[in-house]
Write a structure and sequence with these properties.
Elements (H helix, E strand, L loop, with lengths): L6 H8 L6 E5 H6 L1 H11 L2 E6 L2 E6 L9 H10 L5 H13 L11
Parallel strand pairs: 1-2
Antiparallel strand pairs: 2-3
């Protein structure tokens, strides 16, 4: 803590009014980590952690993964195709699997 600054005044120094993007030093972030996480979680703020005045990382609210079936299809098309040896191994494993007994439940 700097010369006589209370925790409350230090928090105000971290959060200028009207800004959703806070810049704090790595040292200050370590000292007030729980407070920073609460600001991100409850207020939706983004915190930029700096070392030596340069941005190093950012803490921001987690976002849901935006991944569509079209994206998956594109990834599968772009992926390398399995070679013949791969399919031989898959076929061998399939042949060695134990048979599943018929269901005792009537259909």
């Amino acid at each position: 803590m700097r010369q006589g600054r209370s925790r409350r005044s230090r928090a105000k120094a971290l959060a200028p009014n009207g800004s959703h993007r806070r810049h704090v030093s790595a040292t200050e972030a370590a000292r007030t980590f729980s407070e920073l996480v609460n600001r991100v979680h409850y207020r939706g703020e983004t915190v930029v952690i700096e070392r030596g005045g340069a941005p190093v990382c950012e803490i921001s609210p987690a976002q849901p993964v935006r991944f569509t079936l079209a994206t998956l299809a594109e990834l599968l098309r772009a992926a390398p195709k399995p070679d013949a040896e791969y399919w031989d191994v898959v076929e061998d494993i399939t042949r060695r699997q134990a048979r599943v007994r018929p269901s005792p439940w009537r259909r």
